[in-house]
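Minimal example, chain plus S-adenosylmethionine.
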Amino acid sequence: MTNLKKENDIQLYVVATPIGNRADMTFRAVDILKSVDLIACEDCRTSAPLLEYYGISTKLVSYHKFNEKQRTLEILKLIDEGKKVALISDAGTPCISDPGRVLVQELFEKGVRVSAVPGACAVPAFLSMVPRFGEEFSFIGFVPRGEKQQQEFFEKYRSFDTVFYESANRLQDTMQNILEFRGEKTFISVGRELTKIYEEIRYGTIKEVIKYFENNTLKGEIVCLLYAQKTADGDDLDLIDKIRKLKKSGYSDKDISTILSSLFDVNKNKVYKLSLNIK
Ligand code: SAM
């Protein structure tokens, strides 16, 4: 069934399920879910149709944020008795903005062998299909609600490409806050309904994307990438972009610092130093 060494030692499998397209279930996920004694799932009603589709008739038990402490104890007891358990969530990878962390942490501390059966997850799927200008990114789960919390969040992650989840009916308000706190030059990618019929990616300035969704369907599941505005050293990416363009047009570092410092409120010396370092 699998070539994983010491498969027999594994007591809890953390199994990813599709994020929209049923065919994204892995062969191994099906094998493991059939073989375990119990599947802990976020909502049995949501998982039942998928499991039935793949001919998986293993017993189900709910595991969600309101019963995770109690269920963790029950699962530990079963594992102590030699049973094998799999954890799934409604969609995608458990523990990624989904229940599971309490269980995994508890089992880890007790020395129980936990192993992942990887598969679909909205974050890597999305990151593999949008423009990106560097490898690093932050992922924060669901964007905080409330204007003040959002302002702090957008400030905190100014230097990072930041991936977040948001609901379709809050997205326009959140993007308006981004526009207000970060300004028009902010770039964003919005992924909607990934792996499903109406899959869509929108990339552009925050203003363009807000305008687009004023006139087009905004429903379904959403994941966003808010692009960094400053480098990790605090340098303004917009300024760096301007320097790059002037360099391409053949201007010297000295000319660039004179031009940009006279047009914008930036220190001439700082521009010169930045320019020296930009290829
Ligand atoms: N554990 C899941 C994963 O691996 O992606 C995420 C669970 S979280 C509760 C659900 C959120 O993930 C949705 O509200 C949406 O923001 C995002 N998401 C899940 N599936 C998606 C999809 N097909 N397209 C876009 N975003 C999706």
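The domain at 123-226 is CATH 3.30.950.10 (Methyltransferase, Cobalt-precorrin-4 Transmethylase; Domain 2). Residues 19-20, 89, 91-93, 96-98, 121-122, 165, 191, 193-196, 221-223 surround S-adenosylmethionine (CB under 6 Å).
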